[in-house]
Amino acid sequence: MAQPQPIGLRLTDAQRIDWLRLIRSANVGPRTFRSLINRYGGAREALERLPDLARRGGASAPAYICSQAEAEQEMTAGLRIDVHLRSPGEPGYPPRLGAIDDAPPLLGVRGDIDAMARPMIAIVGSRNASGAGIKFTGALARDLGDAGFVIASGLARGIDQAAHQATLATGTLAVLAGGHDKIYPSEHEGLLAAILPSGGAISEMPMGHAPRARDFPRRNRLISGVALGVIVVEAAHRSGSLITARIANEQGREVFAVPGSPLDPRCAGTNDLIKQGATLTTRASDVIDVITPILDKPVELPSEEPEDEFTADEPDDSARARIVSLLGPSPIGIDDLVRMAGAPPAIVRTVLLELELAGRLERHGGGLVSLV
Length: 372
Prior knowledge:
Blueprint: H1 13-23, H2 30-40, H3 43-56, H4 68-80, E1 84-86, E2 107-111, H5 113-116, E3 120-124, H6 131-146, E4 150-153, H7 159-166, E5 172-175, H8 189-195, E6 200-203, H9 215-225, E7 229-232, H10 240-250, E8 254-257, H11 268-275, E9 279-280, H12 284-295, H13 317-325, E10 332-333, H14 334-341, H15 345-357, E11 361-364, E12 368-371
Helix pairs in contact: 1-3, 1-4, 3-15, 6-7, 9-10
């Protein structure tokens, strides 16, 4: 049940350093990174243009740009613990993750490279899991592992921990919220060491980055992104696992939910997911029956933007002012912004890029943007 590996760019050593410098620079996220690469043809050229773009976007001071020395230092620190930076399409980068629209341009990968290319199912749930939930998770994960799936989860306590432990022999993937050298929780460093021989670990964060609360929702998009589907075992209302389920829906992934007692608040979120259309799951075959048809579909990286998406034309002051005036704290669709501004899409996207590099723009799901 091998998963097809998409063909992507193979970076040279020099390109990898330039890509790392660009993604580590201030206000450059995955979507902005891709826009810059498409506009200027390469990371080195984009790095040269960052100061001018941020200035035109209204930055009050020069923004941080990662230096060559800092990038080389990060790569060296990673290699000391066998962490390799990979781009979408390169060996070790999970194929389905590379197909999401905000895929990390570079992903820190370590462990069994072959496991990264196999089909994955994510299992997430409560950190404060019940005994029954932990037991069920172990049995479900083990059955899915025996069926050929790698089990992805977030290395957290409770359900995540049970899913990883049950599939150490068949392959499991730990998706980290911090750098590879900043494992959270710290008591799971031993579990991670046991995962690596037959499975792996991935992170988009730099070495030395200790995870903060805001990093976990960002990490959750990777958990769902690597997988064909996400199983939620126990989740209270407003839990991180429900965030993962929501992102999975946005990414076009299948969502599965294990029913629980209506008297247990840890099951309130999963029961609601079932009401909203998630596949009710009580055994591995419930998952396999839904996932099997998807395995025959090829994995494709996002297509490059059309060559005329960005042009050499730069927005003049009046166009820039008109576009900015249409933005506010409430999210608006980019297509709506283009229509209201009466400007070419390339001009609108250039202004949005300038604002983002100046730290003044926030991107939301579904192609929505707002002013910070």
